[in-house]
Every structure is written in C-alpha cells, then in structure tokens.
Design brief:
The protein is mainly alpha-helical. The chain is 57% helix and 0% strand. Helix 7 crosses helix 11 and helix 10 crosses helix 11.
Length: 228
C-alpha cells in the first residue's frame, strides 16, 4: 500500500516537471518544420499566381488590334486635360497657337511700299511698266555695288560677263552686258532680283525694298555703261 502511494507520488511529480519544462525538442523541431514548409508553400503559391496574372496580361495585350491601339488617348489630349494647357490653347488673352494676324488693307511697311506681283513671266506687262523711283546718285551706285558684290559676283562676275568663280562647275549665266540684257526694263531687272528666273534663285528675302533698285542702278550705270 505504501509502495503504491509512493509510486503515484513519483509519477505525479514527474508529470508536473514535464509540464513545467514545456514541449519536448522533437515537438518543437517538428512544429518549426511545419511552419517553414507552410511559409514556403504560401510563397510558391503567390509566385505562381503572379506568373499566371502576367501571362493573362500578355495575352490580352497581344490580342489588341491596331484599331484598338488607335482608340487609346493621345498625349495631346492628356496635355489638354491639364487646366493651364487648356487655358493656353483656348484662352482669350493667351493664344500662343494662333496664326499671325494679317496686316490691314493698305498698310505701308516702315521701309516704304512694296511692289506687288514681281513673279516672271506671269505679270510680265505689269513688271515692264514699273518705274524706278530711286535716282541714280553716287550713294545709290555705292549701295548697289555693295549688294552686287555680295549676291551677284559669284555667278555673274565682277564685270557681269557670267564668269563668276562658281560658274566652271555650273551652267554659265547670261551676260549682263549683252544686247538682250540691255533691252530689259528697270522693272524687269527689279523682278529678276526679287523673284529670280530659271536657275537663278530669288533674292527677295535678302535684298529688300529700295536695295533692289540700287542693284538695278548699278547694273545700268556701271556694268552696262562700262561695257563696249
């Protein structure tokens, strides 16, 4: 009887010590293994779902036709959606995209009136009726000489014979001292300077207003006057 009670007391104390000591190492290791395996399983499942979603997205994109791409919003529309850009595009005071306002009818430029219709030969009769308004003074001849040397000498040469420094590689231009050139009216020479003809390019954007008449005066008073 006493031995049985003693064995029960020993067993009870052993159970108490085991309970207070916590789970055994094998149980801890097994539990940790299951936790790690669970985390690895969750991570693998998440990666698989991400790859599947990416595959579906690629299939959707490759299935788009050209018409569908063209229906996508334009970058210009996106910019116009910004309030400030919308104001700049449609505003009353700020209109950077507006075309330049044309001058009022009869407007005279600060350099004087511009002769209209200087295209050859569409307005040939009108061009021949142009009257040279610039007197053939020494100042006009000096200005004409300056412009002639810049724009005319490369092709026509110093004396106007068509022997400029670049002519050996191109078609020789007409001789400005020949009878045909002498027969040209001042208006026709003015139009030649402004609009060009044949292989001669227009110089109206470089030689403007009275400067064209100065070139005409130099041709008449120096080039053609000095020719035999």
């Amino acid at each position: 009887m006493k031995a049985s009670v003693a064995r029960e007391g020993v067993l009870e104390r052993a159970l108490v010590r085991a309970a207070s000591a916590g789970p055994c190492p094998a149980t801890i290791a097994d539990s940790g293994g299951r936790g790690r395996r669970g985390r690895r399983h969750y991570s693998a499942r998440r990666d698989s779902l991400a790859r599947y979603a990416l595959l579906v997205l690629l299939l959707c994109l490759t299935g788009c036709t050209r018409d569908q791409w063209q229906r996508f919003p334009s970058p210009d529309d996106l910019i116009a959606a910004v309030p400030w850009f919308a104001v700049m595009h449609r505003g009353i005071a700020i209109q950077p995209y507006a075309m330049p306002r044309p001058p009022a009818p009869g407007t005279v430029p600060v350099t004087g009136t511009e002769v209209a219709d200087t295209v050859i030969p569409a307005y040939y009769p009108r061009i021949n009726r142009l009257v040279n308004p610039v007197q053939r003074t020494s100042e006009s001849l000096d200005r004409g000489r300056e412009l002639y040397r810049v724009y005319c000498v490369p092709c026509h040469g110093d004396a106007g014979h068509g022997d400029g420094p670049i002519t050996p590689k191109f078609i020789r231009p007409p001789d400005l001292t020949a009878a045909q050139a002498r027969a040209y009216t001042d208006g026709y020479l003015y139009a030649l300077v402004a609009s060009g003809r044949g292989l001669m390019p227009p110089y109206g954007d470089k030689v403007r207003g009275p400067d064209r008449w100065h070139v005409v005066n130099y041709l008449r008073g120096v080039i053609q006057a000095g020719a035999p």
